[in-house]
Structures are given as C-alpha cells and as structure tokens.
Amino acid sequence: MDVWKNFLIIKAVLLGARRDTWGTATRRFILMTMKKIKTVLIGLGTVNLGLLRILKAKATQIANDHGVSFIIVGVADSSGAAVNATGFDYEELLELKRLKMQVCELNGYLPKVPVETIAEYVSADLLIESSSANLSTGGAGLRIARAALKKGWSVVFANKAPLVFAYDELHQLANTHGGSLAFSATVCGGLPVINILQRDLKMSTLRRFRGILNATTNYILNELENGRSSAEAIKEAQRLGAAEADPTHDVHGHDSANKLFIIMKSFTNFTGTISDITVEGIQHLEVSEILQAKVEGKKIKLLAVAESESGQWKVSVKPVSVPSDSFLGTCNGWEMGVELKTDLYESIAMKNYEADPIGTSAAVLRDAIDVCERDAYRSGRPNKN
Ligand SMILES: NC(=O)c1ccc[n+]([C@@H]2O[C@H](COP(=O)([O-])OP(=O)(O)OC[C@H]3O[C@@H](n4cnc5c(N)ncnc54)[C@H](OP(=O)(O)O)[C@@H]3O)[C@@H](O)[C@H]2O)c1
C-alpha cells in the first residue's frame, strides 16, 4: 500500500512539474530525486562543449522528461585526465575551454596518468567518447572505450574511429560486461540514420542504400557548380569551421566510407572490413564534368552506395551523376541525405541541413538518454515513473 502511495505522490509531483505549476522548488525536488548518471567526457572540443551547453540549458527538461541528470565525474583532453566524484560544474568546463586552457589545469587533474586509464580512477556509468579520430589505429578513443566497457560502463561515440577498427569487439565487450553502445552521432551528425535503421526499420532487410554522407564534399561540389575553384570552396568551408584543416579525408571519400561501414555493420549481415569498400573521392573530378552534367539536367554527388547482389554486398563511395530533380540531386550544400529500400518498408528518404555542429552534440545527448533508458530497463529500474 505504501509503495503505491509513494508512487502516486511522485507521479503527482512529476506531473505538476511538467505543467510547471509547482515552480522552482518542485523542479529542485525532481533534480534531487533524479537518477544521477555518472559520466566521463573524453574530448572537450566542438562536440562535447556543444553537449555541455545543451546540458546546461536543458537540465530541468532532461530531468522532467527522462528522469536523469548527467554528473560529469571525469574529463579528458590531449593534456590528460581529471576526475571529480561529486561532478564538475558544466560552466566550469565551458569556461576552461573559453579561456583556451586544458584539463591539466583543472582541480582533480591526474598527473602522469595516461588518459587511457581514466576508468581506473573514477566510478562511472557512462563514457562519452568525442576525441579526435585516429584512423590509423583507432587511437586513444578505442583504448579508453575498451577499458570503460570492461568496467560495465555504457559508451556513446561521436568518434567513428573506434567503431571502424573494432565494431564487433566493442559490441562483444558491451554484451559480456552488461553495458550499452550508441553511436548515432558518428553518421551524418544529427540525421538519425542509425537510429531509424535499428529502431524504426527493425525486422526489415536492406536491399539498397544510397547516401550523401559528407557535407563538406557536397558543399564543395555545389560551389564548383557555381563557378568557384576547389581551393576557394575548401577555404570557405574551413572558414565556416566545417572542414578540417586537412580536408583530404573528406575529399578523398574516406569519411563517407567510414560512415557507410558503420551503417552496414549496424543494420546488415555485412561481414567485410573497411578495406572491402571501394573508395573514389572527388579529387580527380574536373569542373568541366560538373558543368556538362548541369547541361544534361544532372548533378554529380559523392555517393555512398550499398547494393545486395545474389546475397553479396557491393559497397562503394564514388562520384555519381544523378538527376537534378531526384531526391539526392536536391540535397545541396550543407545538406546530407540518404535513400534506402528495404523489403518491408519499400523506399524511405531523409535529409538534414547541418552547417552547425550543435546537431552532432544533440545526437550525442539523445544517445546518452537512450542508453540510460535501455540500461534502466534492463536492470528493472525505470528512470521514469
Ligand atoms: N564536429 C562535428 O561536427 C563532428 C560530427 C560527427 C563526428 N565528429 C567526431 O567527433 C569527434 C570530436 O569532434 P570535435 O569536432 O569535437 O573535435 P575537436 O574540436 O577537434 O576536439 C577533439 C577533442 O579531443 C581531444 N583529444 C585529442 N587527443 C586526445 C587524446 N589522446 N585523449 C583525450 N582527448 C584527446 C582534444 O584535446 P585538446 O582540447 O587538448 O585539443 C579535443 O578536446 C571526432 O572524432 C570527430 O571526427 C565530429
């Protein structure tokens, strides 16, 4: 009886708070009764700083709607790691990077401790891995994720590299030790390609996938069509903060290939490795080819394509000319888009416009909330009343 009474009281409090009729005191009560998710942030660059800004702005909404609050008990950047069992203030971390300082200047810094071993120095539930991608070895991100999963933590990735190197191993570690993995931010930032495939199209089988997965190259192609040179377009993309200082990875098609690999591993029976994807970038494309396509009512796009032929996947990234008025032909500039065919849902197409990386930070947050709800469900402790 008491259990039900308490349940009804908490439910009434939550409903009151949702309608915002009980004011600040109620919200404070809810924040106190929330499940605190002890979280470690790897990387304090664009993505995780955007995440901290959203967490700061929406803490009450996250608590009201999902019953959780994220307590940042550990952080790391290229200078090292720092821990704080009671939680770093979001604003303290934002201010640190506003002042161009590093984690080694925080209280709680762990001198001489390699970032990879942070899981030995703090107890946590969740790791958010948004460090720089190391596409030669998987880098520190892969080593940290392995260690976190072995501790039973869940891991959310913005960094693609660990998944490209060790997709199966990371999933096995999560299964063995009871954590969850989420990585929707690694593919097209805010466009929920992975989530839609895994959650909304479940039980269907992919027949064909075609996508523009790299906004920088799509922007460059647009600018070439408008008469700019490739160097000018790259410079502008860099000025806007969207292209890397070295855009080779984007321009040569490898970023699109990595995303296609993650899509294939997460939704199909593809058993290949990244080297099974044929990759041709836009570096050898002549402006005359783009202008000729325009005359013919077509556009050249850098497409990631996967097609199933007699049970075998043919996967590639290459420039392809498509009708200007087709779905992919109308994904311009900073837009990314995918169209897919499955056996049960026929054709589905979706696109986003994302010049601002905040969409990627928001994708990390949605994954973090999903992971908390999944973990709570599995342990029989729902966050929400
Ligand atoms: N930006 C986007 O729109 C976007 C979209 C999808 C995916 N991603 C991926 O998400 C990840 C983060 O992107 P970002 O734009 O936030 O990058 P960023 O601004 O360059 O930040 C990278 C962060 O990683 C830290 N770092 C570098 N090496 C490290 C190491 N060994 N151990 C711990 N931390 C290390 C850097 O430290 P310092 O601060 O000391 O330099 C920095 O804080 C990348 O893998 C990127 O490919 C980004």
Outline the fold blueprint.
Layout: H1 2-18, H2 23-33, E1 35-42, H3 46-66, E2 68-77, E3 80-88, H4 90-98, E4 126-129, H5 139-150, E5 154-157, H6 161-177, E6 181-182, H7 193-200, E7 206-212, H8 215-225, H9 230-239, H10 248-251, H11 254-267, E8 278-279, H12 287-295, E9 298-309, E10 312-323, E11 335-342, E12 346-353, H13 358-378
Parallel strand pairs: 1-2, 1-4, 4-5, 5-6, 8-10
Antiparallel strand pairs: 2-3, 7-9, 7-11, 9-10, 11-12
Helix pairs in contact: 1-2, 3-4, 3-13, 5-6, 6-11, 8-9
NADP nicotinamide-adenine-dinucleotide phosphate binds at residues 42-47, 76-79, 102, 115, 130-133, 140, 158-159, 185-186, 189, 357, 360.
Structural overview:
The chain is of the alpha/beta class and 385 residues long. The protein has 2 domains: 34-190 and 360-378, NAD(P)-binding Rossmann-like Domain (Rossmann fold); 193-353, Dihydrodipicolinate Reductase, domain 2 (2-Layer Sandwich), CATH 3.30.360.10. Helix content is 43%, strand content 22%. The chain has helices at residues 2-18, 23-33, 46-66, 90-98, 139-150, 161-177, 193-200, 215-225, 230-239, 248-251, 254-267, 287-295, 358-378, and strands at 35-42, 68-77, 80-88, 126-129, 154-157, 181-182, 206-212, 278-279, 298-309, 312-323, 335-342, 346-353. The protein is globular. The relative contact order is 0.13. The model is unreliable at 1-17 (pLDDT under 50). The protein binds NADP nicotinamide-adenine-dinucleotide phosphate (NAP). The site of NADP nicotinamide-adenine-dinucleotide phosphate (NAP) has 24 residues, from helix 3 and strand 2.
